[in-house]
Design brief:
Elements: H1 15-43, H2 45-49, E1 53-56, E2 60-63, H3 70-77, E3 81-84, H4 93-105, E4 108-111, H5 122-134, E5 139-142, H6 149-160, H7 166-169, H8 190-202, H9 208-217
Helix pairs in contact: 5-6
Length: 239
């Protein structure tokens, strides 16, 4: 009978740990790749999905630049007004096409350029308030990506039309629509946060009229406390 020699665990190679390690590394790489793809898909969603959202069903919508779908969006949602917060001029094909599409459809076009990374001026906020409260509905707000300036318009709509208090109205700034309040866009929060703090200090509740009066008279801004001339319907530069 041949004696069975004991196995020395130090010298007998066990392939199982090697296979297990390789599997774990492969799984980790797959998870990292999937995470990167997910982040990329989220970051670029405004550019392939129009970043379309419903602010108030049948009354207000938001989107990124509706470069190729504006005609369809006008028909699908019965839009009466488009508020462009991006700027643009006759040298920009997207701007020319947007002006043409709204004019041909009989839709009011408002042109109110805002910065996505700067504290809004008093005049800009007052014009935004006035357009939102007087324009024909349904209205579409849009900027380039539909994330930051469009978020501010949504917050103002929540305050002025929906009558929401500042804390609830701030839901218009949403990560779902790619608003990331870092490196500039957080400056758009400042007027709403300051208004909320002022209400608390004064022991007052929010009303739409109170918010507009606060912007005109108490908002910390360099431009004068006066009512601006109403924004006219139509492009800043006629095509």
């Amino acid at each position: 009978m041949i004696p069975i020699q004991p196995t020395d665990a130090r010298t007998d190679p066990d392939p199982t740990p090697t296979r297990r390690g390789w599997t774990l590394r492969r799984t980790a790489r797959v998870l990292v790749l999937a995470s990167l793809l997910g982040v990329a898909a989220f970051a670029f969603r405004p550019y392939y999905s129009q970043n379309l959202g419903v602010v108030d069903p049948g009354r207000a919508y938001r989107s990124a630049q509706p470069t190729s779908r504006l005609d369809a969006m006008i028909r699908e949602h019965g839009l009466a007004t488009v508020l462009n917060l991006r700027g643009g001029d006759a040298d920009d094909p997207w701007y020319v096409n947007e002006v043409r599409a709204t004019e041909e459809a009989g839709v009011d076009f408002y042109d109110l350029p805002l910065s996505a990374v700067r504290r809004p001026r008093r005049r800009e906020l007052l014009l935004l308030i006035d357009v939102i409260t007087t324009c024909r509905l349904p209205v579409l707000f849009h900027c380039r990506a539909g994330a930051d300036r469009t978020g501010l318009a949504t917050v103002v709509y929540n305050l002025m039309i929906a009558g929401q208090p500042p804390e609830a109205a701030m839901a218009g700034f949403t990560l779902y629509h790619n608003h990331v309040p870092l490196f500039g866009p957080e400056r758009l929060h400042e007027p709403i946060n300051e208004y909320s703090a002022w209400l608390s200090e004064q022991g007052l509740a929010h009303t739409p009229e109170r918010f507009r009066t606060w912007v005109r008279d108490d908002y910390r801004a360099d431009d004068p406390s006066v009512d601006p001339r109403p924004l006219a319907v139509g492009p800043r530069v006629r095509q």
